[in-house]
Amino acid sequence: MPEQNPESRLRLVTLVGEIVAAYVSNNSVPPTALPELMASVHGALAALDGQPAAPAEPAVERPTPAQIRKSVQEDGIVSFIDGRTYKTLKRHLTAHGLTPERYRERYGLPEDYPMTAPGYAAQRSALAKAIGLGVPGGRSDQRRTGTGG
């Protein structure tokens, strides 16, 4: 039976702190990822000792419906991870180890929550249409078939 006394728990927490400190001193880790990293290390060490692991997912404060509506702005989308505004969230999420689906799930966002700012999406759409993409017989098709100008 593994030790359950306060001394062994304190030893485990101290060890987790030392491991995370060593890792962070040699790797770039955003502050928002530290609780998850600590929980992961704690879980791994506790499993080695036969103790039940702490949940790997830290509690994340979910935004209110009003905050969700306000996060989608014409020129950018406010990230619930760091509060900064981005034209597209995909690269930002990848940097934090999340997929769009996982991000929506983590923060309780609807399935149709956009990953691209509406204004930026409209701008890119207009640019694509201007060069003939997505239109049958557009410039792109003309180049392939050798017809047109």
TrEMBL record:
Any one Pfam family match given in the protein's UniProt record, by short name = ROS_MUCR
Q: Its domain of life?
A: Bacteria
**Gene Ontology biological process terms in this record:** regulation of DNA-templated transcription
Q: Kindly list the GO molecular function terms attached to this UniProt entry.
A: DNA binding; zinc ion binding
Q: Which family is this protein grouped under?
A: Belongs to the ros/MucR family.
Task: State what protein this is by name.
Answer: MucR family transcriptional regulatory protein
Q: Which organism is it from?
A: Methylobacterium phyllosphaerae
